Structure to design on (686 residues):
């Protein structure tokens, strides 16, 4: 059904695909596992058309789906043939409410109002978003945004579903749900991922990888998480009796969200893993700890000294889910030099996080941007750091490399993850947020 | 990108029909430019502020207007320096820092900018995007133009939000003990983000099928007292001309 042979390079001559051949049977579920910067997202964008039209580059070859070369079609004409869930959720959300986000593509398909309504209701129920129908997308958590994009894709119901790291940011329960939905889907699915997840087992018919600009069959080598040591120090960050409140400003039907943290402690050099459902408040807790969000009540202290919201910003590094929210300068080296670290330290960071100094930040892949984000905060030398779903979009080895680098430096880490495999491989305590309260993970 | 600024509410301004609200917004913005008396300038500045207070509360109103404050301050500092011919009010060693005419110009610009921004913010805070598009289309504006207008209306407040996010992220990277945020890199980052947003938004719209189908015409029900609402939304801004 899909028969493609393409070559593509960006305007800076960086070659991404060279006679990249792909053939997928109708209804086949294909998994493409490849490291960051290998061209997975580029492939998704080429199929849906935003590359090269909006991002430049030289594309040659053909990409046949059901006998027609989609490269000859306008982007909007391809929507019914192939649509995607993007890795960066923010780049695809445009409207002021969940409902509008869903109805816009359906209106563009020329469907009747009753059909739009029934598809909207179906997609919302499929991804548990019914109560968010009138809510602004800005008020959704990372995982909820991902579910919304999936709901949009399932509502459009194209011939080819492209899932770019679509399992990332989803809680374990939603990952299982998505895997289940894919298994029963009679459409062609191309899923793109940086690392193997247990949910992929039995969901996909075949796996391939991208290596040296070509598609090759994927040979699974199970990654064994190495043992990581913690070097605990004296400094202690403590959160006591904190309550965080977040309002749903755009909807009158929803009560405001509240998270209660009776007691939380993070010792210098320690690693603590935090789990919890989408929208449970993990990111809000991290934002509060790093001083980006004000608590309603309670105190945050380091070594017994209570810290104001602004003081926390200089003490706790917060690596946000979307790395591009924290990268501002033109090149990788500009970002690293902005930390005012010594040249030796910068060179060490470049090698530790496998970064190219002259690379343009806005052209980095999502995964590489995460490594740069980690390098920047590594150089800033904070004693405490929060990795907010750092493992998504990174290969397991890159993620472990980042964790080890921080812990070896004696930095205390709070790692937020949805991957139970990652959680069990990390050293230290495991916590979770359940029914609005931070507690020990059982 | 996320362009939402709607806040749920049940105020009279929330309940006003979107078409009446669009008429009010447009007329109000136009009338603002006819004001030249102290009373008129004060009225056009404070009316949206007052409605906003009633519609979305003090916290949100302060939040919205605080985004305009840096702009107002820049105007207060630099415009009087440009207009130094006139009745001097403040002279330092023979150098006229401010004149009556300079201050009047500042007041006029601030009032107009504040009132136009205020009335637009009020529309966006109290009306959902899809309703604004429907309202514009009800006035026979083509779908593409209605969508573009609605997005442009939201682009400016969105840049304000984006700038606040950039400032927060920047503050996380300051050396311990330092406060504030580096202004120049923040503005550069904002410009880059704004420029990047254009192709990203266009690509996202097209991938969602924008331009694929000719949109169906819009039929909006008329609420009770629709004509009274429209009439009031015409009379109120026009009556401000008596204060000009």
């Amino acid at each position: 059904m899909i028969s493609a042979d393409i070559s593509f390079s960006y305007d800076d001559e960086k070659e991404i695909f060279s006679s990249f051949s792909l053939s997928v049977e109708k209804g086949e579920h294909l998994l493409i596992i490849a490291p960051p910067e290998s061209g997975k997202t580029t492939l998704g964008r080429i199929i849906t058309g935003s590359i090269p039209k909006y991002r430049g580059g030289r594309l040659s070859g053909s990409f046949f789906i059901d006998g027609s070369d989609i490269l000859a079609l306008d982007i909007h004409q391809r929507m019914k043939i192939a649509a995607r869930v993007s890795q960066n959720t923010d780049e695809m959300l445009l409207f002021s409410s969940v409902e509008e986000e869903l109805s816009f593509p359906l209106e563009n398909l020329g469907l009747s109002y009753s059909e739009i309504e029934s598809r909207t209701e179906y997609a919302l129920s499929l991804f548990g978003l019914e109560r968010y129908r009138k809510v602004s997308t800005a008020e959704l958590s990372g995982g909820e945004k991902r579910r919304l994009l999936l709901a949009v894709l399932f509502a459009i119901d194209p011939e080819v579903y492209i899932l770019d790291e679509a399992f990332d940011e989803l809680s374990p329960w939603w990952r299982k749900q998505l895997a289940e939905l894919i298994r029963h889907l009679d459409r062609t699915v191309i899923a793109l991922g940086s690392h193997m997840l247990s949910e992929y087992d039995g969901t996909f018919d075949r796996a391939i990888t991208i290596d040296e600009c070509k598609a090759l069959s994927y040979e699974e080598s199970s990654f064994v998480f190495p043992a990581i040591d913690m070097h605990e120090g004296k400094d202690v960050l403590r959160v006591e009796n904190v309550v965080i409140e977040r309002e749903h400003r755009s909807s009158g039907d929803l009560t405001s969200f509240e998270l209660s943290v009776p007691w939380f402690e993070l010792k210098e050099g320690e690693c603590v893993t935090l789990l919890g459902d989408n929208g449970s408040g993990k990111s809000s807790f991290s934002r509060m700890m790093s001083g980006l969000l004000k608590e309603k009540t309670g105190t945050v202290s380091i070594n017994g000294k209570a810290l104001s919201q602004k003081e926390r910003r200089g003490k706790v590094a917060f690596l946000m889910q979307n790395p591009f929210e924290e990268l501002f300068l033109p090149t990788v080296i500009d970002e690293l030099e902005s930390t005012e670290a010594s040249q030796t330290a910068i060179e060490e960071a470049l090698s530790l996080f496998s970064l190219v100094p002259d690379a343009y930040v806005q052209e980095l892949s999502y995964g590489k941007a995460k490594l740069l984000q980690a390098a920047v905060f590594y150089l800033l030398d904070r004693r405490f750091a929060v990795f907010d779903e750092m493992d998504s979009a990174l290969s397991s080895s890159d993620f472990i490399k980042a964790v080890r680098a921080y812990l070896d430096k004696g930095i205390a880490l709070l790692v937020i993850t949805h991957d139970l495999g990652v959680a069990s491989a990390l050293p230290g305590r495991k916590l979770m947020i359940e029914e609005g309260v931070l507690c020990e993970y059982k | 990108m996320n362009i939402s600024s709607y806040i749920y509410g049940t105020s009279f301004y929330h309940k006003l029909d979107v078409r009446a609200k669009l008429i009010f917004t447009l007329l109000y913005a136009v009338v603002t430019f006819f004001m030249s008396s102290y009373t008129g300038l004060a009225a056009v500045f404070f009316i949206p502020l007052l409605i906003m207070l009633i519609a979305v509360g003090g916290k949100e109103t302060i939040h919205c207007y605080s985004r305009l404050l840096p702009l107002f301050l820049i105007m207060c500092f630099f415009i009087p320096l440009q207009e130094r011919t006139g009745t001097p009010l403040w002279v330092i060693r023979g150098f006229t820092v401010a004149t009556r005419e300079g201050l009047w110009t500042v007041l006029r610009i601030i009032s107009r900018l504040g009132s136009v921004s205020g009335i637009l913010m009020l529309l966006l805070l109290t009306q959902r995007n899809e309703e604004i598009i429907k309202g514009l289309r009800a006035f026979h504006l083509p779908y593409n133009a209605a969508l573009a207008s609605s997005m442009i209306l939201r682009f400016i407040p969105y840049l304000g939000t984006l700038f606040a996010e950039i400032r927060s992220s920047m503050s996380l990277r300051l050396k311990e003990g330092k406060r504030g945020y580096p202004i120049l890199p923040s503005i550069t980052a904002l410009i880059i983000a704004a420029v990047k947003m254009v192709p990203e938004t266009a690509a996202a719209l097209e991938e969602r099928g924008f331009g694929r189908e000719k949109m169906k015409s819009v039929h909006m029900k008329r609420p009770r007292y629709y004509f009274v609402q429209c009439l009031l939304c015409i009379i109120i801004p026009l009556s401000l001309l008596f204060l000009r």
The radius of gyration of chain A is 22 Å. Chain A has a mean pLDDT of 91. The longest strand of chain A covers residues 236-246.
